[in-house]
Description:
Distance between the termini: 31 Å
Shape: globular
Order of helices and strands: EEHEEEEHEE
Low-confidence stretches: none
Helix content: 10-25%
Structural class: alpha/beta
Number of strands: 8
Amino acid sequence: MNAVTxxxxxxxxxxxxxxxKRIMKENKVPDNYxxxxxxxxxxxxxxxxxxxFDAEAKDGDTVISTEEIKLxxxxxxxxxxxxxxxxxxxxxxGKGFVxxxxxxxxxxxxxx
Length: 112
C-alpha cells in the first residue's frame, strides 16, 4: 500500500469529533476504522463532500492523524480539502456536518 501520513491538512472540531464517535457507536463501527473524507462530482458548485468509514487506507491516500481519529483522504480530494475545518452544527438552521473550506470559490445554502 502506498499511503502517506501527514500531521494535519484538515482540522476536526470537538463537536464534529463527538458526533463521529456517536455515529460509530450507534452503527457499531469498529474502533480501528478511520473516517474517509472526500469530494465527488455533483452539487451546485460541481463538487459535494463525502464522509464514510474505512478499515484501511487505499493506494494514494493521505492519512491524517488527529488526537482521536485518523482521516483517509484520496489525492484528488486532498487538493480541494487542504485547510478545511470539519465541524458539526445542530442549530436552528439544520443539523449536520459542516465543511468550512477556505478554498471554496462559491457556496450556496444547500449544504452540498
